[in-house]
Amino acid sequence: MNKNGEPRFKALRMIATILANLTAILSANYIVFYILDHFNPGFHFVVRSEFFLTKYLHVVIPILMVLTALLYLLVYTAGGAKLKRFNKARLIRILVIDVILAGAFAMTVNARAFGWVKWLRPKEEAPVAIATRVPTAEPTQAPTAEPTAEPVETPAPDHTETAAPAPNEPTAEPTPEPTPEPTTIPGLLGDKFKEKFSEGEPVVTEPNTSETLADGTEKTLIYTYAGQKVAVELYHYQKGKLEYQIADLYVRDIEKLAAVYENDQDNAKYLPDFAESSNAIIAINSDYFSNNATDAGLIIRNGMKIRDKQCKHSDLLVIYQDGTARCFDCKQDKIDNNEILSSYPYHSFYFGPSLLDADGNAKTKFNSTLMPSNPRTAFGYYEPGHYAFIVVLGDRGMKDYEGDSHGDGKSPGMTLTELSALCASLGMKVAYNFDGGGSSGMCWNKTIFGHNSRTTGDILAIVD
């Protein structure tokens, strides 16, 4: 009892106070994490564990709120506390302290996740070259022997006494020209899509030819590049305010699908800078692996193993030396790094999620928190040597090739479900989501489509 004869319920009040403060801190963290995830989608590497996403956000906080309310109700009902103690000043003071603590916690996690404090960053391994697949030799066909001419019987001489005719010179039969064997073009595509390549110098065009699709989407071919080993057809799509571009890519040599990157996130650049330094014909941002919060995943670039860590939370995309591509689902597939490394990979990316199932059908459930409409960057695979780059414009700030700002985009962006449906409708066998938001962009011919409003650590490019 207190001096007024009222029950103290000290233990209950202490528990209720602790729960109230914990609820406030976690709720404030939820707001801070939501803001960070909205403006920096790469942050999902920190918060995408099943506990955080399902239990913490949707179960733990509501349970704490209910328990706190019940305890306070019990204490108040029993007369163990007076509402007058919780005046406006005290409530504001508690709220400010809780928000400061929540913000400090969230920013500490963020600093660790993105390496803002350099000495906290994990050290990258030295790149290691991956074994190169030995090309299978074409079977050598044994030369066919020339047919031996049958001997021609000479008729017996006629001994009659007639004038001998003048001997005739034998007329030589013309030798038929051999039929040339069809030439097989070496590389991933062989003779497929031969009409899209150039036999000489590269040919660049800007057709700007348009057609209206059945659903009302305006499709415009805006740029083509035809070289001896690579070909690009870039299409712009617009339906209402929604804008996106798809580059149809044809590659005879896997080395022409090149990654350009920086191991150290302090050396991150804007997309056009990466594209210009590598003489890229066309390029997109990729997974920004140096900014990976969990230092996880198998990272391979241009046949070099950069990181060999467990794939914990994100789907994995692997492009092999033979031009094939495959996505590994981090929830369903057992991702064996050694098995992948022994299968001659050329690139691997750790961001995701994968957008199509094993049969090339659209997915509706993804290993990602980035479900809402957003600027998007994605990679698509049709067959060895035939790929696609996809960039979807959203409502973020945009910078041009020179870095000048151009306000926010008016396009609403795409959800993962919409992006998946688009890739399936185009007939892709594999599709994979790259870093989006302000990182998203496609660069070609001194032109940038996308946002380019923040730097990135790597790009995927077509070079010639």
Explained architecture:
The protein is α+β, with helices and mostly antiparallel strands and 464 residues long. The chain has two domains: 10-120, no CATH class; 189-462, no CATH class. 24% of the residues lie in helices and 24% in strands. The chain has seven helices and 21 strands. The chain has helices at residues 10-39, 44-47, 50-77, 88-113, 271-277, 337-341, 416-425, and strands at 128-129, 203-205, 209-212, 218-226, 230-239, 242-251, 257-261, 282-285, 298-301, 304-308, 316-320, 325-328, 345-350, 376-383, 386-392, 397-399, 405-408, 430-433, 441-444, 447-450, 458-462. Strands 2, 3, 4, 5, 6, 14, 15 and 18 form an eight-stranded antiparallel sheet that branches. Strands 7-21-8-19-20 form a five-stranded antiparallel sheet, with helices on one face. Helix 1 (10-39) runs antiparallel to helix 3 and helix 1 (10-39) crosses helix 4 (88-113). The longest helix is centred in the N-terminal third of the chain and has 30 residues, at 10-39. The protein is elongated.
